[in-house]
Amino acid sequence: MTAPSARVMLCDDSAVIRGAIARMLSEDREIEVVAKTANGQEAVNAIRSARADVVVLDIEMPVMDGMTALPLLLRADAGVKVIMASTLTTRGADIALRALRLGAADYIPKPSSIGTVGDDGFRRELLEKVKGLARQRRRVAQQARVSLALRPAPPLPARLLAVGSSTGGPQALFTLVQGLGRSLPVPVVLTQHMPATFTPILAEHLTRIGCMPCSEARDGEALVPGRIYLAPGDRHLLIEGNRSALRARLTVDPPENFCRPSVDPMLRSAAAACEGRVLVAMLTGMGRDGMEGTKRVVDAGGAAIAQDEASSVVWGMPGAVAQAGLCHAVLPLPKIAPRLLEMLKGARA
Fold first, then answer.
1. Residue 211: C-alpha distances to residues 74, 130, 206, 224 (Å)
2. Percent of the chain at pLDDT exceeding 70
3. Which domains does the chain have, with CATH numbers?
4. Which of 143, 202, 241, 247 sits between 20 and 30 A of 136, alpha carbons compared?
5. Pairing status of strand 236-241 against strand 246-251
6. Do the Cβ atoms of 312 and 284 come closer than 8 Å?
7. 14 in active site
8. Is 205 marked active-site?
């Protein structure tokens, strides 16, 4: 029998929630729950002996809360991957995203009650994040063993940079946006799979890291260079315009790829509005959202860069684009921003 590949510690002050999540994780043969703790101090005391790959860490607990425990866990085991369990509130979102900037690997919206722990969406998100982060911890993620056909840079400079991300995306976005610097010659549009409570907080945090201003897109607003426009939770972000101006449109059209916002409608509309002059960056995420939209962009004359497998939490979205032969480059996360800057300046790699 194959040994589990993901060792998980749970830290939550609710014994009922701990037990329910432990049962859910243990049903997957790739996962072993190696410790269950009731507060941050217990987790810190147990981290070395547990040898966990991933810690699911509640934020609000007695004795020691999650934000206090986070740096102590990372100091005790620099390689451990911490998933913050956050309530679906504005305060919870802000704390979770602050934790990402302090070294947490990802977050998950915490179930509001025992009845929602078994929700299929929560289960799917938790399992994909735990297994994806454990693979990163154990360095078994490798570039896909396929021949990746890379395309040449397009002849015309892009009018728009479009970014798609999902699982592991917030952490990846912090790295990408910092690397892009304080000004770009084009607007940036961004779709991250995220609840509506979290997207305005993500925009604030992307702005706070000291680079380009970021805000949730507003219906009908003009897109100007050097700003980032984030798709609001539960709204698709579409791009409209002509050769002189671009505008954002928000819709409540049905979800695509089980998501709203979805990357595909953003890219399809961008390809049409910009006559193909779009540069796509596809970051870590589960599934294939963004692949068909990227094909529309590339077929119209645009270009795409995908995050490589080794630096992705889940190589679903970028992997789909890369293996479809749609990319100009497939790169580790830290190298994506420099390549985008080269391409936006008209340089050819």
1. 26, 30, 8, 15
2. 93
3. 6-138 (3.40.50.2300), 160-344 (3.40.50.180)
4. 202
5. antiparallel
6. yes
7. no
8. no
- Give the residue with greater pLDDT, 1 vs 38: 38
Q: Which of 86, 165, 166, 262 is catalytic?
A: 166
Rounded to whole angstroms, how far apart are CA atoms 287 and 132?
13
Q: Which of 42-51, 116-125, 309-318 is predicted least confidently?
A: 116-125
Contacts of 170 (CB under 8 A, 6+ apart): 97, 100, 106, 107, 192, 194, 202, 205
Whether pTM exceeds 0.85: yes
Do the strands 81-86 and 54-58 form a parallel or antiparallel pair, or are they unpaired? Answer: parallel
Catalytic residue among 53, 106, 289, 308: 289
Select which of 193, 205, 236, 328 is catalytic. 193
Q: What is the 3-state secondary structure (H, E, C) of the chain?
A: CCCCCEEEEEECCCHHHHHHHHHHHHCCCCEEEEEEECCHHHHHHHHHHHCCCEEEEECCCCCCCHHHHHHHHHHHCCCCEEEEEECCCHHHHHHHHHHHHCCCCEEEECCCCHHHHCCHHHHHHHHHHHHHHHHHHHCCCCCCCCCCCCCCCCCCCCCEEEEEECCCHHHHHHHHHHHHCCCCCCCEEEEECCCCCCHHHHHHHHHHCCCCCEEECCCCCECCCCCEEECCCCCEEEEEECCCCEEEEEECCCCECCECCCHHHHHHHHHHHCCCCEEEEECCECCCCCHHHHHHHHHCCCEEEEECCCCCCCECHHHHHHHCCCCCEEECHHHHHHHHHHHHCCCCC
Q: Binning pLDDT at 50, 70 and 90, where does residue 45 land?
A: very high
State how far the Cα of 235 lies from the Cα of 175, in Å rounded to an integer. 25
Residue 349 has pLDDT above 50, yes or no: no
